[in-house]
Write a structure and sequence with these properties.
Strand order of the largest sheet: 18-15-17-16-20-21-19-22
Radius of gyration: 23 Å
CATH architecture of the largest domain: 3-Layer(aba) Sandwich
Number of strands: 22
Number of helices: 16
Distance between the termini: 41 Å
Structural class: alpha+beta
CATH class of the largest domain: Alpha Beta
Shape: globular
Largest sheet: 8 strands, antiparallel
Length: about 475
């Protein structure tokens, strides 16, 4: 048994207004029994319910810093029972609810205007680790789970590039990374979920028990139930990672080699980027491919690079520990935090492009792209296999191979520039849809209800039916604007 240390204990002593109930007439939270002649008393909680300005302002913002919706109250739960009680309470009062993990959304997806935000960061216990699975709270960060698992020689099969995200947060959108070619999304590696539905029911679901709910919740964008705990798959962890950076001037050759690598699966990890050219003008392309191994076994470099184009202008080789590879972004992010850039707005764009359209789409864009358009943020471009992704609401193009295309923009504190980047995202999204592309449900792309219906396509009737069944009052996660 691996026990996490709950942050609730660390912050329970903070000053906060004592919330005693909700006034349905005034649509406000009551902080003393004399504040209103009649109100609905909140249930007894192990955690804390906050209505002070500091908590509300923090919960009304996110990593994107583009949308601000100020809630009426913030729950820091002391247990999953607190979440269940408050979802039931909110439904009875007609209050909208959103769950916030690490606040890494970029366009207000986990915000709720005048409603209740549930901060899952206090639900941070790793309850158990066995030879093939981990049972964890939704607020556990992937970095915490990875460190606990590797201490036992294990690892989650799919990791996001940035590890300081909550388990519940990434499972709600899917969770993508360089091992998708073998294992699918993080949501494809969930064995069981414990959730509270929009009608206040605490239930467990899996492929074998309440399978319809399980399929709906994993990659369901928080529309049907809030994830409280998850049992996720673990595999044997390697000790080392041999990583190659292969640079190309020709997009056609880059894509050809990426397709070769994703189809034969010779690398354990496969991503890629559009990067600045050495001259400082224009861009080139980089394959990032990693092979994992544990001594005395070694990685066969000849086999790994066989058949790739000789047109790769530069090849870099990095042999490092598996943990160093997994945490490869940590130092860069700490630097960005130290200079304040990490706190700038982030109008990110996240798309999936059909392989047949990727060269034309990306080539046309890169021909006019500048570092001012990206704010010097990275541009990711790597292949994904449709056959590995089984979550029905994680929408990919119809072709077997698509390319994840992400412009991780950083915007200056200038509303005009921010608005231009968001408008550009919308135009690029429309161009992607026109060639059969889809979006990853993260990022800053303005979407109306009709856009979401188009996004879900043939599974929209299933999506809408699940909403009616599991969240009949429509209180959960309104920030995305789906309904």
């Amino acid at each position: 048994m691996t026990e996490g240390v709950t942050r609730r204990r660390a912050i329970s002593g903070l000053a906060a207004l004592a919330v005693v109930g909700f006034d349905p007439r005034a649509r406000t939270w009551v902080t003393s029994a004399s504040a209103a002649p009649s109100f609905s008393r909140v249930p007894e909680l192990a955690g804390s319910l906050f209505v002070d300005a500091a908590h509300l302002q923090a919960a009304g913002d996110d990593f994107g810093h583009l949308v601000r919706r100020i809630p009426a109250a913030v729950l820091l739960p002391g247990s999953i029972a607190d979440v269940v009680k408050m979802v039931r309470y909110a439904r009875a009062q007609g209050v909208k609810v959103a769950m916030r993990g690490q606040g890494h959304a970029q366009f207000g997806q986990c915000q709720v205007d005048a409603g209740l935000v549930i901060d899952s960061s206090s639900l941070d216990t790793i309850h158990s680790l066995t030879s093939d699975r981990a049972h964890v709270d939704a607020g556990v960060r992937w970095s915490e789970l990875l460190l606990a698992a590797t201490a036992r020689g294990l690892t989650p099969p799919v990791l996001t590039d940035y590890l300081e995200l909550s388990v519940g947060g990434t499972l709600s959108v899917g969770g993508i990374g360089g091992a998708m070619q073998h294992f699918g999304a993080q949501a494809d590696n969930v064995l069981e979920l414990e959730v509270v539905t929009g009608d206040g029911k605490l239930v467990k679901c899996s492929r074998y028990e309440r399978a319809e709910l399980f399929d709906a919740v994993s990659s369901g964008l928080g529309q049907f139930a809030l994830i409280l705990r998850a049992t996720v798959r673990l595999v044997k962890a390697p000790a080392r990672a041999l990583v190659f950076h292969l640079f190309y001037d020709d997009l056609h050759v880059f894509i050809r080699d990426q397709l070769r690598l994703v189809k034969d699966g010779r690398f354990d990890y496969l991503e890629g980027q559009v990067v600045s050219a050495p001259s400082g003008t224009g861009f080139r392309y980089m394959i990032e491919a990693g092979s994992f191994y544990t001594p005395p076994c070694t990685a066969d470099e000849v086999r790994l690079l066989r058949g790739l184009s000789d047109d790769a202008t530069t090849r870099e080789r990095i042999d490092q520990s598996y943990l160093d590879f997994a945490f490869r972004l940590a130092q860069t992010i700490e630097f960005l935090k130290s200079i304040g850039v990490w706190g700038f707005p982030h109008p990110w764009l996240s798309l999936f492009l059909p392989a047949s359209a990727t060269e034309h789409y990306v080539g046309d864009l890169v021909a006019r792209l500048t570092t001012a358009d990206t704010g010097q943020g990275p541009v990711l471009l790597y292949p994904v296999l449709r056959s590995r992704v089984h979550r029905p609401f994680l929408r990919l193009p119809r072709e077997e191979v698509s390319f994840a295309f992400n412009i991780l923009r950083t915007a200056p504190p200038d509303p005009v520039v921010q608005a231009a980047m968001v408008a550009s995202n919308r135009a690029l999204y429309e161009a992607a849809v026109a060639v059969g592309g889809t979006r990853y449900a993260s990022g800053a792309i303005p979407m109306a209800a009709q856009d979401w219906r188009q996004h879900f396509g043939e599974v929209w009737p299933d999506f809408a039916r699940a909403k009616r069944r599991y969240d009949p009052s429509g209180i959960l996660t309104p920030g995305a604007g789906i309904f």
